[in-house]
Amino acid sequence: MSKPRILVTRRWPASVEAVLAERFDVTLNTDDVALDAAQLREALSTYDAVLPTVSDRFPASLFEGGAIQTKILGNFGVGFNHIDIAAAKEKGVVVTNTPGVLTDCTADIAMLLLLSVARRGGEGEREVRAGGWTGWRPTHLVGTKVTGKTVGIIGFGRIGRAFAQRCHFGFGMDVVFYNRSAIDPMEASRYGAMQLQTVEEVLEVSDFVSLHCPGGTENKHLMNAERLSRMKPEAFLINTARGDVVDEAALIAALERGTIRGAGLDVYEAEPHVPERLRALDNVVLLPHLGSATEETRSAMGMKVVDNITAFFDGREPPDRVV
Ligand code: DGY
């Protein structure tokens, strides 16, 4: 029997590409150039499986017009807000993701951003590199103490919990959180955390607010101008979730006006575009979507995709089926 034809849309860790090449009739993207909408549409007409990443967009329009050969989208990433799930389902295309294996590394990046922005690490680094450091002095780049402060977490899934654990047990912080569904207080207490009833309650008491909810329609602009104004003026916003969870224009306005003290961002509304006004601000730390970017995690993500599509083509249920 011939092997399923699969397309990998970007470069993946070499060890994972090697396994894919053994098991499937695979087309790799050796140039690592992102495919445009027309190329992705063509892929849906040609390949049995397409393995996209979180930066490939699959709106409903991509599933329309012409026959679809693809039976499964094996997404390299836990987030799937770049795929119109309803449209995929309607066309009978299975979608899988890669949960679990990026929990720790994403929580680590959130902590990196929190520490960097509170302790002005980005500003200090830029100053040293520019040759502008004139020596130690009591008033130089004075930041905000982290230990013992209150952190508010929006979304208490795997990554939210891992972040809570770091904040509470690593930095002695009080942890409060908002989550759509109720979390057993015993479970929350394992992370030193307490659930509050509304996003607003969390915002009002927190020195740091960290977003860990999914992107997509239901959470679009969850942090809007009104909610940003509920944060303490000395508080910081951390976003390692999805860019569209924050109204970026409202955030820039809040940062420029000093309505909040700063922000640490790993994700943006129109990646890889980062607005000039955001880049001009000193009270933000900006990373290029690095949450899962470790050798261990990226290989584990790739192997999850391999497991998902192997199960699918063997006639078994893919372990991480979204739809
Ligand atoms: C994901 O997996 O959704 C991250 O944003 C990228 O690792």
Q: How is the secondary structure organized here?
A:
Blueprint: E1 5-8, H1 14-23, E2 25-27, H2 37-46, E3 49-51, E4 72-74, H3 85-90, E5 94-96, H4 103-118, H5 121-129, E6 150-154, H6 158-171, E7 174-178, H7 185-189, E8 193-195, H8 199-205, E9 208-211, H9 225-230, E10 236-239, H10 248-257, E11 262-265, H11 276-279, E12 284-286, H12 295-313
Parallel strand pairs: 1-2, 1-3, 3-4, 4-5, 6-7, 6-9, 7-8, 9-10, 10-11, 11-12
Helix pairs in contact: 1-12, 4-6
The protein binds (2R)-2,3-dihydroxypropanoic acid.
Describe the fold and architecture.
With 323 residues, the protein is of the alpha/beta class. The protein has two domains: 5-101 and 295-313, Rossmann fold (3-Layer(aba) Sandwich); 103-286, 3-Layer(aba) Sandwich (Rossmann fold), CATH 3.40.50.720. 36% of the residues lie in helices and 14% in strands. The protein contains twelve helices and twelve strands. The strands form two sheets. Strands 8-7-6-9-10-11-12 form a seven-stranded parallel sheet, with helices on both faces. A five-stranded parallel sheet has the order 2-1-3-4-5, sandwiched between helices. β6, α6 (158-171) and β7 (174-178) form a beta-alpha-beta unit. α1 (14-23) packs parallel to α12 (295-313) and α4 (103-118) packs across α6 (158-171). The two termini are 27 Å apart. Residues 54, 77-79, 102, 291-292 line the site of (2R)-2,3-dihydroxypropanoic acid.
What series of H and E elements makes up the topology? EHEHEEHEHHEHEHEHEHEHEHEH
CATH class group of the largest domain: Alpha Beta
Largest sheet: 7 strands, parallel
CATH topology of the largest domain: Rossmann fold
| Number of structural domains | 2
Output the strand order for the largest sheet.
8-7-6-9-10-11-12
